[in-house]
Design a protein that fits this description.
This protein is 45% helix and 19% strand. Strand 7, helix 8 and strand 8 form a beta-alpha-beta unit. Helix 3 crosses helix 4, helix 4 runs parallel beside helix 5 and helix 6 runs parallel beside helix 7. Strands 1-2-3-4-5-6-7-8 form an 8-stranded parallel barrel, surrounded by 5 helices. The chain has 9 helices and 8 strands. With 263 residues, the chain is an alpha/beta fold.
Length: 263
């Protein structure tokens, strides 16, 4: 059985001292949200510093692409014109992500993983996106990253962590629509005895059906250590995902602070 990935979500960033403190708790991967906006590569000193710090400490880095800011910029320009919006959002996603990753690569600080939130497209006001359109926008970002760092792994996250029908429907449609290959499915989850069995079923089915590793993200939960399902139980469920495709867990800063070690 392989060791599980221990990832902590620092959201907007962290100092090198803070990252080193997380490392002493057993963290091996740092995840942070990059708010993608027009011209991000020209004003990204804090991103470069974070990437450099993570790499210098021998840890891996997951960049969660926060695309809503960019899409809101495009929406302000195009209005509720779906065709124009998708075309400019697709181009803007590729250009800005590509420029940012190019500069990160030049500093030997490119992320090891990117994550894209699949739920974002339901939250763009005034725009109703078909699935092919969503797929084009996701593909543009994946293409931008892969053009710079081909070995960067792609994580697609879903809120349907305990709803297998909804989760597999989305990923089926993404593949049928020409979605680019991805490596990991992240299930955003809140520990609960009521849904834990459903989570386990979903992890097993998605890993087999889409040949993807499974990451369970509990970083949105304030105090997972007090839930009626223990963190050890979650580890055990991930460890038995078929074909050794249980990837790991994403914790919050607070959760890591309260733990002696997470591994």
């Amino acid at each position: 059985m392989k060791n599980l990935c221990r990832m902590v979500n620092v959201f907007d960033g962290a100092s090198k001292d803070r990252i080193n403190a997380l490392k002493t708790k057993g963290v091996d991967t740092v995840k942070s949200t990059l708010s993608i906006v027009g011209g991000i590569a020209d004003n990204a000193d804090s991103i470069f510093e974070l990437g450099t710090s993570v790499k210098s400490l021998g840890l891996k880095w997951c960049a969660d692409l926060g695309l809503m800011s960019l899409y809101n910029e495009v929406l302000a320009e195009t209005g509720a014109d779906n065709r124009m919006f998708v075309r400019k959002a697709e181009r803007g996603g590729f250009e800005n992500v590509h420029k940012l990753f190019t500069k990160l690569a030049e500093k030997n600080a490119a992320p090891d993983f990117i994550q894209i939130d699949t739920a974002i497209f339901a939250n763009i006001d005034g725009i109703s996106l078909g699935f092919e359109e969503q797929t084009r926008m996701i593909n543009a970002c994946i293409n931008a990253v892969k053009a710079v760092k081909p070995d960067c792994k792609v994580i697609l996250s879903t809120d349907d962590s305990a709803d297998n029908e909804m989760a597999k429907k989305w990923f089926n449609r993404f593949q049928v629509s020409g979605g680019k290959p991805f490596d990991v499915i992240a299930l955003n989850y809140e520990l609960s005895a009521e849904t834990f069995y459903n989570l386990s079923i979903n992890m097993s089915d998605l890993s087999r059906r889409f040949e993807a590793e499974i990451l369970v993200d509990i970083s949105g939960q304030e105090s997972p250590e007090s839930a009626d399902i223990a963190l050890e139980d979650l580890d055990s469920a991930i460890e038995i995902v078929p074909l050794d495709r249980g990837f790991g867990v994403v914790y919050s800063n607070k959760c890591v602070d309260n733990a002696v070690r997470v591994a």
